[in-house]
Amino acid sequence: MNENPMLVEVKNLKVQFDVRDGIIKAVDGATFEIKRGQTLGVIGESGCGKSVTARAILQMVPRPGKIVDGEVIYHRRVKSNGSELIDHVRITELDPDGREIRKIRGGEIGMIFQEPMSSLTPVYTAGTHIREAVSLHRLMPIRKVETQMVEAVRAHREVTKQEAREIAIEMLHKVGLPKPEQRVDSYPHQLSGGQRQRVMIAIALSCQPAMLIADEPTTALDVSIEAQILDIMRDLQETADMAILFITHNLGVIAEMAEEICVMYMGKVVERADVVTVFYEPKHPYTRELLKSIPHVGKKTRERLASIKGMVPDPFNLPSGCVFHPRCPEYMPGKCDRITPSWTRVGRNHWARCLLYEEV
Ligand code: SF4
């Protein structure tokens, strides 16, 4: 259990999308916290609410989505008269377009997305990208990398243009981009996919965030580049005491990166524990089924991986009781389809949302 001070608390967060066919509960009461310097992994199938949760932390839920309940509290370190205080910022109460959230977004809490090409703006050089990354978390293709990076750094740190350029080059060097002094003056389309993703990581890290939200940051990359980028993130985390919220459906990556894991299903956190406990003693049937889908050393390569039976339910017509019951191998008729499981302690620092562990 990580004993570091609290950094971000997510309490009973609910995000809904009000669309023509009804209301989708994309995040339905998510609760977790992240300590300073900790890596928290969030896993689950596509559409389980991982990415919406990440965006809600920064008040970036795309329309017509809306945070309808719960709160996100950011425990910010501030200096006052030479001593350090903690300012408890209720992010969910901030104006999503206001100054305060823009200062946090991209600066104090950085974010990297899955697709660098749609995030990088090709007409900007890498430096130009930094400014846009600050406000929109995108790399703009028509601006030089240098411009985007310099603007991002200067939006969050009091440095001159020349100093910001030096920081940009240093960060590009740290993320392993070859010839960073030259690459900083290139446009995103002149870089490979792996290089663009490294520029995005350099941008996110150049603002010295207290936390990095990494949403499938390596999914589009080949395995060797992925390994390099994960190494870079780990190194920077250790040297800068940065927390990481790591979102992925790749359980192999999460096993390498995370200390604790939240498993999400249909907008709810259904299990939480440290990484070893989740992998070796999973309690929730959904987690167990997810783990069966990981390839094992020694398995014949042609052997098909297990996949979870059934489909993710229709969000407009969710099953009654436990929403996992139509797919659950341990379904208890008359119970699981009638009673909504609550958050139950199933071990030391181990929690699950399942009726197998509840005295009803
Ligand atoms: Fe399965 Fe019942 Fe537990 Fe839901 S509550 S996960 S259906 S055993």
Write a structural description.
The chain is α/β, with parallel strands linked by helices and 360 residues long. It has one domain (6-264): P-loop containing nucleotide triphosphate hydrolases (Rossmann fold). Helices cover 31% and strands 27% of the residues. It contains twelve helices and 14 strands. Helix 4 packs across helix 8. The longest helix is centred in the middle third of the chain and has 18 residues, at 223-240. 46% of the residues are buried.
Record the SSE blueprint.
Elements: E1 6-19, E2 22-35, E3 39-43, H1 50-57, E4 65-80, E5 83-90, H2 99-104, E6 109-112, H3 116-119, E7 123-124, H4 126-136, E8 142-144, H5 145-156, H6 161-174, H7 180-183, H8 193-206, E9 211-215, H9 223-240, E10 243-247, H10 251-257, E11 260-265, E12 268-274, H11 275-280, H12 285-292, E13 344-347, E14 350-352
Parallel strand pairs: 3-10, 3-11, 6-9, 7-8, 9-10
Antiparallel strand pairs: 1-2, 1-4, 4-5, 11-12, 12-14, 13-14
What would you say about this model in short?
The chain is α/β, with parallel strands linked by helices and 360 residues long. The chain is built from 12 helices and 14 strands.
Number of helices: 12
Q: Tell me the name of the CATH homologous superfamily.
A: P-loop containing nucleotide triphosphate hydrolases
Query: Would you tell me the structural class of the helices and strands?
Result: alpha/beta
Tell me, briefly, the overall form: globular
Instruction: Name every ligand kind in the structure.
Output: iron/sulfur cluster
What portion of the residues fall into strands of 2 or more residues? 25-35%
Radius of gyration: 21 Å
Question: Could you give a short account of the major beta sheet?
Answer: 8 strands, mixed
- What count of structural domains? 1
In order across it, which strands form the biggest sheet?
6-9-10-3-11-12-14-13
Give the rounded overall mean pLDDT: 84
Reading the helices and strands in chain order gives EEEHEEHEHEHEHHHHEHEHEEHHEE
Stretches where pLDDT is under 50 for at least 5 consecutive residues are 120-124, 128-137, 301-305
CATH class: Alpha Beta
How far is the N terminus from the C terminus?
29 Å
What would CATH call the architecture?
A: 3-Layer(aba) Sandwich
| Count of individual beta strands | 14
CATH topology: Rossmann fold
